[in-house]
Write a structure and sequence with these properties.
Blueprint (H helix, E strand, L loop, with lengths): L14 H24 L24 H49 L7
Helix pairs in contact: 1-2
């Protein structure tokens, strides 16, 4: 619609941006999967008891439980990293659209017609 006012397309992402956007979450996910596999998916000290408010009743945590917990946390952080990057890119796109809309309104004030109406 407003291609007349748009000076150029968005620049391509460089290798550092691509690494931060995709490489870091991928490495965190691989790290988490490796830890879960090393721990054999073991989680100790968890009980499903409605009478108690604290489900983690065990005070001692063994090595496998800690590896599983860190592995799952790593995968969750990778997912949050991906979602945050996606939301930031959406926000940047909307900011560009707002600027285009403002330019079109200025064009309308100067010429009396919308940029794509000729």
């Amino acid at each position: 619609m407003l291609e007349i006012l748009r000076p150029s397309k968005q620049p391509k992402a460089g290798p550092l941006v691509l690494f931060v956007r995709w490489g870091v979450p991928l490495l965190l996910t691989i790290f988490g999967i490796v830890l879960i596999v090393l721990a054999h998916g073991h989680l100790n000290g968890v009980q499903d008891n409605m009478a108690e408010s604290n489900v983690f009743t065990s005070t001692s945590i063994n090595h496998d439980s800690m590896l599983s917990t860190v592995g799952v946390g790593s995968i969750v952080i990778a997912l949050m990293f991906l979602l945050l990057g996606w939301m930031l890119r959406l926000n940047a796109d909307e900011t560009g659209e707002r600027a285009d809309e403002d330019k079109a309104r200025e064009y309308l004030k100067r010429t009396g017609h919308w940029p794509d109406e000729e």
